[in-house]
Amino acid sequence: MTTAVGTPGAGAADELTRTLVGFARVLRAAGVPASPDRVHQTVTAVGHLDVCRRDDVYWAGRLTLCAGPDDLDRYDRAFTAYFGGLTVPPMRTVPPVQVLRPVAVPGTERPAGEGADPEELPAATASEVEVLRHRDLAGLSPAEREVVRRLIALLDPVGETRVSRRHRPAYRGTVDPGRTVRTMLRRGGEPVRLERRARRVRPRRLVLLVDVSGSMQPYADPYLRFAHAAARRRPGTEVFTIGTRLTRITREMRSRDPSTALLAVSAAVPDWSGGTRLGELVKAFLDRWGQRGVARGAVVVVASDGWERGDASQLGDQMARLGRLAHRVVWVNPHRGMPGYAPMTAGMLAALPSVDDFVDGHTFDALQRLAGLLAGSRGGNRRA
Question: Given this model, what pLDDT does residue 204 score?
Fold first, then answer.
């Protein structure tokens, strides 16, 4: 790419800011604390660099947006998904001032035989990725769907934490009699400072029930990829599919690669695009798994449109039973965010009294908000 040296104009500066703010949103979804002051530093730094060079943009963001070594891998994955590039570019020592040009996101590149550099001819720009955040997942093209899949893999739906009954040594807290006495005995009975302890903090179990019936076909893939992101980042996460039967796919979700995990799931689930028996399957989950401990004190996510071919009253009874066991029940409905939607189906009307958070899930932006909701920030409509 050839660029002109100079100070970016007002339009280019605005586009630069929008691009980097969108990148910061993706970083926060991936778990990097890209605060507003760090984003401001990035905008200032990139304003003095060649924004058409991927290495300049990479190092400016890495040096200003990352707070520690733990953020580097997440930053690299987010940069690859948002701007493109599979290798860490070298650091430059003499940064020229350049005018902004669109920096690309990988999705589908043009074939190399067409005489173009694959790095400079991506299918979508960073501004287009921002538009994709609010597009209905059911209406995406194959190229757009691939970009959204990469973004979903960067989400960090870790779930809430809870205070354990066990204790850990601490500088502040209640007095630990046992450790205090043992310390005194080691010193010949001489009085020493009081040893203290505090409760351990443990993650709450996250359980996902994903509807793979025919009415949920356009959304089953992104929901399962969301579940894979949760299972990969939080050991102990349980994932089930529901349709005409209940299938536990936690083992298949252990692969680090989302596509490999989804291939294993497709082979394990026999009832793709079938009917829906939500009441029977929620009961089967509770009888075999939930009552024995999987759902006790857990955050349970049900991803379904609520179409029930069986007895709706049974679904209501089983959801009430689930609500008594779980710490929190979240229902994700892909139709909820659409204009004019109202929960009028018999299944949804029966389930909602036992649901703590009823949220939409038809866009990537909605899935990102769901990840924040699971981490403890209340963002849904409780039992609405």
Answer: 86
The pLDDT value recorded for residue 353 is 94
pLDDT tens digit sequence for 38-94: 888 888 888 777 777 778 888 888 888 887 787 888 888 888 888 765 455 554 443
Look at strands 206-211 and 299-303 and give their pairing.
Answer: parallel
Instruction: Return the pLDDT at 240.
Output: 96
Helix (H) or strand (E) run with residue 345 in it: none
On whether the CB atoms of residues 251 and 244 are closer than 8 A, the answer is no
Domains with residue ranges and CATH for the chain: 10-132 (no CATH), 161-203 (no CATH), 206-374 (3.40.50.410)
d(CA 189, CA 176): 16
Q: Report the distance separating Cα 120 and Cα 336, nearest Å.
A: 39
CA distance linking residue 29 with residue 357, whole number of Å: 20
Encoding tokens for residue 328?
């929190």
Spatial CB neighbours of 124, under 8 Å, sequence gap ≥ 6: 104, 105, 107, 132, 143, 144, 147
CA distance 152 to 138: 15
Q: How many CB atoms lie within 10 A of CB 40?
A: 13
Q: What is the DSSP letter of 5?
A: B
Does residue 56 contact residue 91 with C-beta atoms inside 8 Å?
no
Low-confidence ranges of the chain (pLDDT < 50): 1-7, 86, 91-123, 378-384
At 347, list the tokens: 């299944």
Distance CA 333, CA 357 (A): 11
Measured from the Cβ of residue 268, the count of other Cβ atoms closer than 10 Å reads 13
pLDDT value of residue 10:
59
DSSP 186-240: HTTT---PPPEEEEEEEEPPEEEEEE-SGGGHHHHHHHHHHHHHHHHHSTT-EEE
